[in-house]
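User: Good morning. I'm curious how D-glutamic acid would be positioned relative to this chain. Could you predict the structure with it bound?
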Amino acid sequence: MKNNSAPIGVFDSGIGGLTVVKHLIDALPNENIVYFGDTARVPYGSKSNDTVIEYSIQNAAFLMEFGVKAIVVACNTASSVAMESLREKFAIPVIGMIEPGAKYGLGYTSTNKIGVIGTRSTIGNNAYSKKIKEINSEVEVFEKACPLFVPFAEEGWIDHPATIAVAEEYLEPLKSAGIDTLILGCTHYPILRNVIQNVVGSTIKLVDSGIAASYSVVKELTEKDLLNTSNSPGTQLYYVSDVPTTFKFVASLFLGKDIYNVKKVETDYISSLFSINK
Ligand code: DGL
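Assistant: Good morning! Here's the predicted structure, ligand included:
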């Protein structure tokens, strides 16, 4: 049954998805949000596709317990492998990062040379290049896995010399390829945006897949007549499977404001919600 005041469920492998929550709150200030960050099992970017699919279904099943009206997969890694399984399993709109990010990138390029950075999984699955080429086969896509960016982001090392050195190493081949647009294909990367922009130079347009996805959520909820009609500001509930010591500090960096209402949920419970072998 349609319930416009039901929350939107958002999940990520960790706290990167909070960059998406930030844009969702900006775009849809009256919507209620329940967030689950799988901080005990992060990173997903180095795990097998089957494991990421299994975790994604478990995470979505947990969010379903809140009666969510839509699920936002605020993780590019999960979006690159689990969308089909999630859409098969759950009869509500499921919005991922790849298609919106790809479309946004295509809207910016004028040289038809787009760079994509993401986790090993997102890049290894060619998630963005497949989607971009499906829409416009003329476009050249240059992809680069940047696995060290996730731990740097989770540590809050947003302008640390080590982050700059690693960014220079990772991004040089993309610069040399002559890209004019760079898709940040991981929800952790927007907090490293300044370093990335400085390294690639100001002429390259950075695309935040989370902003692109938040517009897709607005579109999908509008089309399905699922927008919350309340005039009061929406509420946010945050669940994580572990609370790392630096959590509050880093989470507020990602979210752009202090974070409250954080509750821990046991990984055993999340794991019990679905098994790929059954
Ligand atoms: N936030 C995830 C993504 O967007 C990356 C972190 C991870 O490896 O789990 O791909």
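The beta strands are 8-12, 33-37, 70-73, 94-95, 113-118, 140-145, 181-184, 205-208, 236-240, 262-264. The mean pLDDT is 95.
Let me know if you'd like a different ligand tried.
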